[in-house]
Design brief:
The complex is a heterodimer of chains A (476) and B (240).
Chain A (H helix, E strand, L loop, with lengths): L1 H8 L4 H29 L1 H5 L3 H15 L2 H13 L5 E4 L3 E3 L8 H10 L6 E11 L2 E12 L4 E5 L3 H5 L2 H44 L12 H47 L5 H28 L5 E4 H14 L3 E5 L5 E4 L1 H19 L1 E10 L2 E7 L7 H7 L21 H11 L3 E6 L5 E8 L5 H22 L1
Parallel strand pairs in A: 7-9
Antiparallel strand pairs in A: 1-5, 2-3, 3-4, 4-5, 6-8, 9-10, 10-12, 11-12
Helix pairs in contact in A: 2-8, 8-9, 9-10, 10-14, 11-12, 12-14
Chain B lengths: L6 E5 L3 H14 L2 E5 L2 H10 L4 E5 L7 H11 L4 E5 L4 H9 L4 E4 L4 H17 L12 E3 L2 E4 L4 E3 L5 E2 L3 H12 L4 E2 L1 H8 L11 H12 L9 E4 L3 E4 L4 E2 L1
Parallel strand pairs in B: 1-2, 1-3, 3-4, 4-5
Antiparallel strand pairs in B: 6-7, 6-13, 7-8, 8-9, 10-12, 11-12
The chains are: A alpha+beta (476), B alpha/beta (240).
The complex binds adenosine-5'-triphosphate and magnesium ion.
């Protein structure tokens, strides 16, 4: 039960849940009432023996029995003009039927029980007007024999018959109760959840911009408290971010200043192995500082996206590596426009290409537009790959696999993959590691395309422009 | 340009870095002065003509960015920023404030020398330093090339990424549009950055640029091959 309830409430807004709850309660209440009413309707003995009609009928019966003939005449006339539904009829207009044939014979039992002195209670069918088909039974009524060849008849269902319970009850409650209540409860739930929604929107703005205006502390007490907590949290994050960027700047400066000295000093040394090695260490240390700083910094930096030709971004990375003597190749379309942060994406892809070259000697980079909403970058190498049980760990910051430890050319902090994942996820994408056949690792970066129509517009529009421009330019 | 050796002013608070850099540049043949902060920089500039400044970003007192802004407003002295931040943001900020180039610490002396030469040559070539193309954006056929931030945007405002060498070559083309440029000339114009052992030939760079900016790289419109001559950039270039 609790499981299915959880399933029901998961991912649905409070508004819908509260609204649904109120409407459900209403439906249950209405059905309950309806059931109760129709149960009573099915048990007329309970009402009829004590109903107003019956009481009136019994009262008149007593009066008529005791009245003088003159008084009776007047009474009968008065009855005719009243709308009490009582009538004195000669017996020959009535047909006696056994109680057990009556659909509502229980009513008679009830009446007899309630009024033991009414010995002459009979159930009768009153004959309707005679038609061509013969005389038809009009309707079942109850006759109280007056002992003079006539009877006082009455219709025990008179009041009830005026109200056709289910047929009238349902549309009435639906229109008069259900619809307004449903509208009201939805509106009420909306009002109740509005502050919560505002709060969520405000918190959303924080996620993008820590300088966003603080949340208004209004609405229900709980919400006010929550807003206050959010504001406090935001200013603390702000402080943390500020102090961290100050620290990063200081660390970066303080580490790189001695490194610069070291480098200048090393460069004055006579050429040789020592000098080479020292200079290489300086470069490595600088790269490590850069990696650490960018890992720490990218997390907090504000997002600033712009449309970028991803194909040129990726191929430039490959060319840059190729130009420094590495075996890096690009394969893919010439233009793919993506809304992104180019500097960060460059860093992410560079890290992956760097790994491929470092651990697998080659980097085969492919770019692929999988659909209108997704681009994929594959970075493949021909190295040892990463065993399945280590793939997950490889993404952890400062984690380095067996392949990396010990090998002198592979100094690093183990941040490359962590940074790449951080950046790709910041773009709403994901990085996964796969085995490549026959050997090597294939790193797959999937990036969602935001601003869907950007992807193709460049080529189309440029085409138009060039077709116009070309003959003119050629002529000059 | 004077016949005398160019005078370089190093504004750097770390004494050893200043000394090391200064020694290296002196050996290379430049005249060098050193200032540890903004104030002594001003004093030196009052007395001497300075051809190029190496400006550290983090200085005691007035910091490098504000000095850069101040100098840009007053004079046209070429500035190369030195910073320990090594972050794209700083580079862009520095270049937008008017620095001519940017070098991340720890820099190699080879790289430093290449940058100094490139900036001096660019300035010498353009004559009046303020009219330098460095600060103006160039546009051709709807494309926008910003030498300061080293960015290229296509007709739709989409950023197109070039490697350093590709950018230098395209910038060289844009600064000399509709002229036939030989491979040697182009090599000369673009060797400002340190030339590495794996440097690509001009032909390779041209074909890469075509892949990135031409509609049909096999039938190029912007960078055309001139038989027996070299290459020509066919578009009209406006600077803004
Ligand atoms: N292409 C690959 N082939 C084989 N192993 C890899 C590959 N890429 C990463 N690894 C393994 O995953 C580990 C983590 O990679 P990561 O890039 O995070 O760190 P690193 O390369 O060792 O150091 P850094 O990138 O910080 O210089 C590596 O140490 C290596 O063991
Ligand atoms: Mg790595």
């Amino acid at each position: 039960m609790s499981f299915s309830l959880k399933g029901l409430t998961a991912n649905r807004s409070i508004l819908m849940q509260v609204g649904a709850l109120i409407i459900l309660c209403q439906i249950l209440a209405q059905v309950g009432t309806l059931l109760f009413m129709s149960w009573r309707y099915e048990r007329p003995d309970l009402i009829s023996a004590t109903s107003v009609v019956t009481v009136q009928a019994v009262g008149f019966y007593d009066v008529l029995r005791k009245a003088s003939p003159a008084q009776r005449k007047d009474l009968e006339a008065a009855l005719l003009h009243s709308d009490l539904g009582l009538e004195v009829v000669p017996f020959d207009r009535l047909i006696n039927i056994p109680k057990s044939f009556l659909p509502k014979h229980t009513m008679l039992d009830g009446l007899e029980k309630a009024r033991p002195h009414l010995s002459a209670v009979t159930s009768l069918v009153r004959l309707g007007p005679t038609t061509e088909a013969g005389t038809v039974a009009d309707r079942v009524q109850i006759a109280l024999a007056l002992g003079d060849g006539s009877a006082l008849i009455f219709d025990p269902d008179r009041n009830n018959n005026q109200v056709n319970l289910p047929r009238f009850f349902i549309p009435m409650t639906v229109t008069a109760l259900f619809v307004p209540l449903a509208v009201l409860s939805l509106w009420g739930a909306r009002m109740l959840t509005a502050p919560l929604r505002r709060l969520a929107e405000g918190a959303d703005r924080f996620a993008i911009d820590l300088d966003a205006t603080p949340l208004a502390q209004q609405g229900p007490a709980e919400i006010q408290k929550l807003a206050h907590a959010f504001n406090t949290m935001k200013s603390r994050i702000r402080q943390l971010v500020d102090s961290r960027s100050r620290m990063l700047a200081a660390v970066s400066h303080d580490l790189r200043t001695p490194l610069t000295r070291l480098r200048l000093r090393a460069e004055t040394l006579p050429d040789g192995d020592d000098k080479e090695r020292m200079l290489k260490d300086v470069v490595t240390m600088d790269a490590m500082i850069g990696q650490t700083l960018s890992y720490l910094r990218d997390q907090a930096s504000p997002k600033s996206r712009e449309p970028v030709d991803l194909a040129t971004l990726v191929s430039s990375i490959c060319d840059d590596f190729a130009d420094t003597g590495h075996n890096a190749t690009y394969e893919g379309p010439r233009n793919v426009v993506l809304e992104c942060e180019p500097d960060l994406l460059t860093r992410a892809v560079s890290n992956l290409v760097d790994n491929a070259l470092k651990f697998g000697d080659v980097a085969l980079v492919r770019l692929e537009t999988r659909s209108a909403s997704e681009v994929v970058i594959h970075i493949e190498d021909e190295g040892p790959g990463i065993p399945d049980d280590q793939k997950f760990m490889a993404f952890e910051p400062f984690s380095r696999g067996d392949a990396a430890r010990g090998a002198p050319e592979t100094e690093g902090f183990g941040l490359g993959l962590a940074i790449a994942r951080q950046i790709v996820e910041r773009h709403g994408g994901h990085v996964t590691l796969h085995d490549r056949q026959p050997r090597g690792l294939r790193v797959q970066v999937v990036l969602p395309v935001v601003g869907a129509n950007v992807g193709t517009s460049r080529i189309r529009r440029s085409d138009v422009g060039h077709q116009n421009a070309k003959p003119k330019e050629r002529a000059t | 340009m004077t016949t005398a050796q160019p005078h370089i002013l190093i504004v750097e608070d770390d004494a050893e870095i200043a000394r090391g850099t200064s020694r290296f540049l002196t050996q290379t043949g430049y005249r060098v002065s050193v200032a540890p902060d903004g104030r002594s920089m001003d004093r030196i500039m009052k007395d001497m003509r300075v051809d190029l400044m190496l400006l550290d970003l983090m200085l005691p007192g007035e910091d490098g960015l504000s000095i850069c802004r101040r100098l840009r407003a007053g004079t046209g002295i070429p500035i190369i920023m030195l910073t320990a931040m090594g972050e794209e943001m700083d580079r862009v900020v520095g270049l937008e404030l008017g620095a001519d180039d940017y070098l991340a610490k720890p820099f190699s002396t080879r790289e430093l020398l290449a940058r100094i030469r490139a900036v001096l040559r660019r300035r010498g070539e353009n004559g009046s330093p303020d009219a330098g193309m460095r600060n103006g954006k160039l546009s051709f056929d709807g494309w926008l090339l910003d030498p300061a931030t080293r960015q290229l945007h296509n007709r739709d405002g989409v950023k197109v990424v070039l490697t350093g060498a590709e950018f230098d070559l395209l910038a060289a083309f844009c600064e000399r549009p509709r002229r036939v440029l030989t491979r040697d000339q182009l090599l000369d114009l673009t060797q400002g950055r340190a030339a590495g052992p794996f440097d690509r030939s001009i032909d390779t760079l041209v074909s890469r640029i075509r892949q990135k900016i031409e509609v049909d790289p096999k039938d190029p419109l912007y960078v055309q091959t001139v038989r027996l001559g070299g290459y020509m950039f066919t578009q009209e270039v406006k600077s803004s």
